[in-house]
Design goal:
heterodimer, A: alpha/beta, Alpha-Beta Plaits, 2 domains, six-stranded mixed sheet, about 35% helix, B: mainly alpha, D-Maltodextrin-Binding Protein, domain 2, four-stranded mixed sheet, 16 helices
C-alpha cells in the first residue's frame, strides 16, 4: 500500500468574515498526481499556502511525509518543490543563475548542485537560454524557468499552483508532459488548476473544490460515475412540436429534454442506444434534422451537477 | 548557505540599474556639477590676482619707484605696474586694462574709473605709503638719530589678532555641498535595503514566498543579503569619494582613511534604514519605494543638500532633528573630520549612526522574521 504523503484534516481558514477553507480534508498517496480543481476563489491556492506553512490557519492539522508541517521543519521543506502561480525569479540574474540560486537554498554540495541545475535546464528545455535574463524570455519560457527553479533540487513532493496560466498551447503541452515525467521519476504531485482539460489529462485523482470545501474526490471516471448524466445528445432541429419533445422525454434512460435556439438537448442516464432511439423518434415523425452530437460527461458536468454552476469562468 | 546568499545578493545589487544610477552615477554627475559651479568662487577666495596699475611720473620719486618695483615682482606680486604717460594711462583706464592710475607729483594721487576691491587696495596702499613717508621725513628733519629704530619698527608686521588654526582642514563653505552629496549617496543604499525586505517577507513578493518555503534560516538569509548590499553600497560610495577627492581634487582635509570610514558608516545606516522601511506593512512595492525615496530626500534636504543654510536654521529652532537625522549625521562626520583635529565629535556622530543602524536592522528583522502570515 502506498504511503501517505500529505494528510490534511479539518482545515479551516478564515479571512475575517470570509471562510476560505471550510473543514477541508485531503489525503494524497505517494506517486499520485492529485488535481485540485475549482473556480477562481474556491480555495485552491489558500490550501497550498496553508500546506506550505506560509499561511496561518484557524483549525485543523497538516502532515507531510508523516510529520506535522511547521515553518521550521526543514526536513520536510527540503523534500518539497513549489511552482507558484506568479513567476518568482530575479530579473537581474540569468536563467542559469536563477536556477542555481534557488537550487542552492536546498542543495549545499556545489558539484551536486551543478549537476542538478544542468538536469533541470535540460528537463525544461532551457539549454539555449541559460545566459538570458528573465525579461528577455517569452511567457512560456518564463513559466518553464519558474518550473526549473522549483524542481531543480529533485523534490519528492512537487506542488504546481496554476502553472499554465497565460501560457501558449505549445508551452502548455510541454509543461504538462514535463509534469508527467516528474511523476514517472517518482515525485508525488499536487496540481491546482481551473482548466478541467489539463486536470483530466494529467491527474490520477481529482479533488473538486468550491467555497473552501472538498466537494468530491476520486479518479475522473469515479467522479463521472457520481453524477446522473452519462450522455448528452445534441441535435440541430429547425422546428419541433411539443408532442415530439414529450415522446423523446418518455424514452428509456432520458431524464431531461431542452429545446432552445433550434437545438434539441437530451440528457440520458445510463443505457446503450440512446442516440439511435432519439433519431428514430425524429425520423418516424418526419422531423428533418441537421448535425448530431453525442457527448460523454466532462468534469464541468460533474462540477455543474454538484455545485449548480459552471466550473469555468466566462473569460476562460 | 550564507555565502550562497551573499554571492547572489551582491550580483543582484550590482545588476540593478536603478541602484547603480542613484548610488554611483548620480553622485559623480552631481559632484562634477558642484565642482564646475563652485570652482570659480573657490578660486576667487583662495587666489589673489595682481592688480594692474599705471604710474605717471610727472616728478622723479626714486623711493616710490623702488617700492612699486618691489611690489610688482616676486612670487606673489601685488601690482602689475606700467610706467607710462598720462594720455596712455587714461586710455588704458578707459578700456579697463588697468584698475587705477597713480600720478607721481609733489604728492601722490590716484585716479580710478569705478569703485571696487582692487581700487580700495590701491587707495589703501597709497595712504599707507604716504603716512610712512611723512613719518620718515619728519624723523629725518627732527630726530635723525631715531631714524633706524623708526625704520625697524615699520618693518615689523603689527597685528593685534592672533590667527589660531583649529585644524588643517578646508574652511571653504562650499565643501559642505560635497559632504551632503556623499551623505546622500550613502543614504541611497536604502533602495537596496528595501529590496531585501521585499525579497524576504513572504507576504510581500512571490520571490520572498519561495524563499520562505525553502529550508533556509531567515536570519542567515537576511544577514547575508544585508551584508552584500552594504558591500555593494560601500564599493559605490568609495568610488564616489575617490572621484571627489582625487579626480575633482576637492580638499576635504587630510584624514583620508577616516573619510572612507565615514562613507562606510553612512552606507550601513542607509541600507538598514531601507530594510526597516521595507519591512513595515503590506504596501505595494512601488509605494514602499516612493516612501523610501521621500524619506531619503527629506533627510538630505534637512541636512542642507538643496539649501545650504537649512541645517543652520534647524539647529537654531529644532536641534533634535540634526541629532537624529541620518543624512545630517553622515554629513557631520565629514565636517568633523575636516574642521576638528580631535575625534570626540566625530566619535559621537559615528556611534549615533551605528546605534541607528542597529535599531533599523533589529526592527526590520523583527518584522520580517515572521514565518506564517495571516494573508498573502
Amino acid at each position: 500500500m502506498a504511503k501517505t504523503v500529505v494528510k490534511i484534516e479539518n482545515l479551516v481558514k478564515r479571512y475575517k468574515e470570509l471562510i476560505a477553507l471550510d473543514h477541508f480534508n485531503l489525503e494524497i498517496k505517494e506517486g499520485e498526481i492529485l488535481g485540485l480543481l475549482g473556480p477562481n476563489g474556491s480555495g485552491k491556492t489558500t490550501t497550498i499556502n496553508c500546506l506550505l506553512s506560509l499561511l496561518s490557519f484557524d483549525k485543523g492539522t497538516i502532515e507531510i511525509f508523516g510529520e506535522k508541517m511547521t515553518p521550521s521543519n526543514y526536513k520536510i521543506k527540503k523534500q518539497i518543490g513549489i511552482i507558484m502561480q506568479n513567476v518568482a525569479v530575479f530579473n537581474e540574474l540569468t536563467v542559469y543563475e536563477n536556477i542555481d540560486y534557488f537550487c542552492g537554498l536546498y542543495i549545499t554540495d556545489k558539484s551536486l548542485r551543478k549537476k542538478y541545475v544542468q538536469e533541470a535546464i535540460e528537463f525544461t528545455g532551457l539549454q539555449d537560454f541559460i545566459k538570458f535574463h528573465p525579461k528577455k524570455l517569452s511567457g512560456g519560457l518564463l513559466r518553464r524557468l519558474n518550473i526549473a527553479c522549483g524542481i531543480a533540487h529533485k523534490p519528492k513532493l512537487i506542488i504546481l499552483d496554476e502553472p499554465t496560466v497565460a501560457v501558449d498551447p505549445q508551452s502548455r503541452n510541454k509543461i504538462l508532459e514535463g509534469i508527467a515525467d516528474l511523476n514517472r521519476n517518482g515525485a508525488t504531485i499536487i496540481y491546482t488548476s481551473h482548466y478541467m482539460e489539463e486536470v483530466e489529462q494529467l491527474c490520477t485523482r481529482i479533488a473538486i473544490m468550491d467555497k473552501g470545501k472538498n466537494l468530491a474526490i476520486g479518479t475522473k471516471d469515479e467522479l463521472k460515475k457520481m453524477i446522473k448524466n452519462t450522455e448528452t445528445v445534441t441535435i440541430e432541429v429547425l422546428d419541433l412540436e411539443n408532442s415530439i419533445i414529450s415522446k423523446i422525454n418518455n424514452l428509456p434512460h432520458v431524464y431531461e429534454v431542452n429545446y432552445n435556439d433550434s437545438k434539441l438537448r437530451v440528457y440520458c442516464s445510463g443505457g446503450k442506444h440512446n442516440l439511435v432511439r432519439i433519431l428514430d423518434v425524429l425520423t418516424q415523425n418526419n422531423v428533418p434534422f441537421g448535425r448530431v452530437f453525442s457527448e460523454l460527461p466532462t468534469l464541468n458536468d460533474v462540477f455543474l451537477e454538484i455545485t449548480g454552476k459552471e466550473l469555468r469562468d466566462k473569460e476562460d | 548557505m550564507f555565502f550562497h546568499n551573499f554571492k547572489y545578493s551582491l550580483k543582484n545589487a550590482f545588476r540593478q540599474k536603478e541602484f547603480l544610477f542613484w548610488i554611483l552615477a548620480f553622485p559623480i554627475i552631481l559632484g562634477t556639477f558642484f565642482y564646475v559651479a563652485f570652482n570659480s568662487m573657490y578660486e576667487k577666495e583662495s587666489v589673489f590676482n595682481e592688480i594692474p596699475i599705471a604710474i605717471v611720473e610727472n616728478t622723479e620719486n626714486t623711493a616710490f619707484k623702488e617700492v612699486i618695483k618691489e611690489l610688482s615682482t616676486g612670487k606673489a606680486p601685488m601690482f602689475d605696474s606700467k610706467f607710462t604717460n598720462s594720455k596712455a594711462a587714461l586710455e588704458m583706464l578707459k578700456s579697463n586694462d588697468i584698475s587705477g592710475i597713480i600720478y607721481v607729483d609733489s604728492e601722490l594721487s590716484l585716479t580710478v574709473s569705478k569703485d571696487g576691491i582692487k581700487q580700495t587696495i590701491i587707495k589703501s596702499f597709497l595712504d599707507q605709503y604716504q603716512i610712512r613717508e611723512s613719518i620718515i621725513t619728519e624723523t629725518v628733519n627732527n630726530n635723525p638719530q631715531n631714524l633706524q629704530s623708526v625704520i625697524d619698527a615699520m618693518s615689523q608686521e603689527i597685528n593685534c589678532n592672533e590667527n589660531l588654526s583649529l585644524s588643517h582642514g578646508n574652511m571653504n563653505t562650499y565643501i559642505q555641498y560635497f559632504y551632503n552629496l556623499i551623505a546622500m549617496a550613502a543614504f541611497f543604499g536604502s533602495v537596496n535595503g528595501l529590496y531585501i525586505a521585499i525579497n524576504n517577507q513572504g507576504n510581500l513578493s512571490a520571490i520572498a514566498a519561495r524563499k520562505c518555503i525553502s529550508p533556509t534560516n531567515k536570519l542567515t538569509s537576511i544577514t547575508a543579503s544585508l551584508l552584500a548590499s552594504f558591500a555593494a553600497q560601500l564599493i559605490c560610495v568609495s568610488i564616489g569619494i575617490t572621484y571627489i577627492l582625487f579626480t575633482l581634487k576637492v580638499d576635504m582635509g587630510n584624514k583620508i582613511p577616516m573619510i572612507y570610514l565615514s562613507g562606510a558608516v553612512g552606507s550601513l545606516t542607509g541600507v538598514t534604514m531601507g530594510f526597516f522601511i521595507g519591512s513595515f506593512g503590506r504596501l505595494n512595492q512601488n509605494v514602499k519605494m516612493a516612501i523610501s525615496m521621500s524619506v531619503t530626500m527629506l533627510s538630505c534636504f534637512l541636512s542642507g543638500l538643496m539649501i545650504g543654510t537649512i541645517k543652520v536654521f534647524i539647529e537654531r529652532y529644532l536641534p533634535i532633528v540634526n541629532r537624529i537625522n541620518p543624512a545630517a549625521l553622515i554629513s557631520d562626520l565629514f565636517y568633523c573630520l575636516n574642521i576638528y583635529d580631535d575625534y570626540k565629535r566625530y566619535t559621537v556622530k559615528c556611534v549615533t549612526l551605528l546605534i541607528l543602524s542597529v535599531i533599523f536592522a533589529i526592527g526590520g528583522f523583527l518584522q520580517t522574521r515572521r514565518k506564517k502570515y495571516a494573508s498573502l
